[in-house]
Amino acid sequence: MKHKFTYKVINILDTASLIIVLAVSLFFTSCKSNDPEEIKSLTEQLDLPSLTVVDLETTMLDSGRIRYRLITPLLVRYDNIEEPYDDFPEGLHFLSYNADGEIIAQIKCNNARHYSKKDLWELNNNVEAINEKGEILNTEQLFWDMKEKLIYSDKHVKITTKSDIINGIGFESKEDMSNYTIKNITGIVEIEE
Q: What is the distance of C-alpha 127 from the center of its chain?
């Protein structure tokens, strides 16, 4: 009787071992190695930001002097995608300084995006740019190509100078808003002093 009990125990252990071996082999055969391209496509589809900064104020220096200053309530960076960009969904205020530390130009808007590969800014909603002469450009969309050092728009623009208000469609100028051209002037109003 003792021998039969031992036989049954061995038989039960062999069955349990066989089940465990089958389960483990099924687990490993059903698993597949992670394909890097598959992982990359899944993470790109998520389009998650790699960085979020709240209440950002930063300065860019050149030879120890402030050259630019950027202020924004929110910066969201997407740099793990094919066309990386920084998003400023709550707007920004960008100031440019001369060698003496004086503000020579500034841009404000309610929404902006900077495409890092192209070094191109897209400014949207209540865009206001002011140059060194105090001339004010208002539009709903403005592009700033930092590589080409120019700003442009295909939308309605209004430029306010000391003597005129000029309305038009389309605008192009150097990045400091000098030597600008309004492509399609729709009206000029003289300002009386």
A: 17
Contacts of 20 (CB under 8 A, 6+ apart): none
Q: Residues 24-63: pLDDT tens digits?
A: 555 555 556 667 776 666 555 557 888 999 999 999 998 8
pTM of the predicted model as reported, rounded to 2 decimal places: 0.72
Is residue 122 within a helix (H) or strand (E), and if so which, with residue range?
strand 120-130
B/e letters for 168-186, b = 16+ CB within 10 Å, e = fewer, are bebbebebbbeebebeeee
CA distance 1 to 14: 20
Q: DSSP assignment, residue 155?
A: E
Residue 176 sits at φ, ψ, to 5 deg, of -90, 10
Question: What distance in Å separates the CA atoms of residue 178 and residue 67, rounded to the nearest whole number?
Answer: 18
How far is 87 from 75, CA to CA, in rounded Å? 6
Give the residue from 179, 168, 111, 105 showing the smallest Cα distance to 138.
168
**Angle ∠(188,143,43) on CA atoms, nearest 5:** 155
Calpha distance 72→78 (Å, rounded): 17
Are 96 and 68 in contact, with CB atoms under 8 Å apart? yes
